[in-house]
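HUMAN: Can I see a protein plus its fold?

ASSISTANT:
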Amino acid sequence: MPVTMIIAFTGCEETDGEKLDFEDWQKITVTASAYNSSKHQGEGNPLITAWGDTLNPEVQSIAVSRDLLKKGLTYQTPVKIEGFEGVFIVNDKMHPRWKNKIDIYMGANKEKALKWGRRKVEIAFPAKIEPGG
């Protein structure tokens, strides 16, 4: 019988984040905006991600543009974002029209999302492991 492992990532304190070796992580600059659990900010149920996860304000989540999937920012990838504490998790993907972009989930806090706006940030994530390498 197959064994299924479920790994849950939640917002991490810096002491937890220190267990990860961020120095070896790949770093890129992306455009970052914020989004909320609002009907007008997506299709269908605003709490369900493109991978079928239910968004939870207790989990620091991001959506990524689909071109970033090829760079290793795939489902459940941990990500450090410049200007934020802790580690975020990739659990949503954006419409194909977006390039080199992330959306930071800010729960129902529309004011926080508007204050964040849109800006360029450096992000870090585990380097993509090439097949056979």
Remarks:
- The CA atoms of residues 105 and 118 lie 13 Å apart.
- The chain has a mean pLDDT of 82.
- The first helix runs from residue 14 to 17.
- The chain has two helices and six strands.
